[in-house]
Design a protein that fits this description.
Length: about 230
């Protein structure tokens, strides 16, 4: 089945907002709390597993991303990137740093750290890997392993200008509050698509966080809210 393209996701109508759900408590959003929560759970069912098998005729391909939680004085911040507009897959979208698994990578953690260093120059010595989230299948049939890492400042960000247009930080508390989680539904040629968005307006500008990135963040929310 050919996947219906979403070229302007911010224009897709919002069907509902999850402001009836509780936000993750502040004491569950500390580095130690998240580390212990990931350590305590071995397997769990995510709310969003993805829809790659539904819309893509590509063979599945392994990938990994880093979910970089920067330890700032004001609380944990999530470091995200905006992809450049000319890329073949997910051009211009907000994403975690990461990419395809290469044959020489020793597992998803190695992939996530290597790709992060290549894309935004964040050296792995600044990253403490504390766990993984369930694999997410993107519409392009990448089987993505989200690797959660704590990032210790100070560090320097050096962007790969071919792949990354910019990097920015969002307070984790904002993303872990479902009052900012919006559901969208649209239909093209009889095929229905649903996706989440978490729009963020920060000092650097406005960012439409949606799709796979938002879905993986929602899975993190579900993990932390049940702690």
């Amino acid at each position: 089945m050919t996947r219906p393209a979403i070229t302007q996701p911010q224009l897709v109508p919002v069907t509902n907002v999850d402001d009836h759900l509780p936000a993750v408590a502040a004491d569950a959003l500390t580095a130690n709390a998240i580390r212990e929560r990931l350590r305590a759970i071995s397997a769990w069912e995510p709310e969003f597993a993805g829809d790659g098998a539904r819309f893509s005729d590509r063979e599945p391909a392994g990938a990994a991303v880093l979910v970089p939680l920067v330890q700032r004085e004001e609380g944990l911040q999530l470091l995200l990137t905006r992809r450049t507009d000319h890329l073949r897959d997910h051009a211009g979208q907000i994403s975690f740093p990461g990419g395809r698994v290469e044959p020489h990578d020793d597992g998803p953690v190695a992939t996530a750290l290597r790709e992060t260093e290549e894309e935004i120059g964040l050296a792995r010595r600044h990253v403490e890997v504390i766990g993984q989230l369930p694999v997410y299948s993107t519409v392009t049939n990448f089987q993505v392993t989200p690797v959660v890492g704590l990032v210790e400042p100070p560090f320097e960000v050096v962007l790969d200008a071919f792949e990354v247009a910019e990097a920015f930080e969002v307070p984790l508390a904002f993303l872990m509050d479902p009052a900012h989680h919006r559901h969208h539904v649209f239909e093209v040629a009889g095929v229905q698509r649903r996706f989440l968005s978490m729009p963020w307006r920060g000092p650097e500008g406005e960012y439409f966080i949606w799709g796979a990135t938002a879905a993986m963040l929602r899975n993190l929310y579900r993990l932390l809210i049940t702690a």
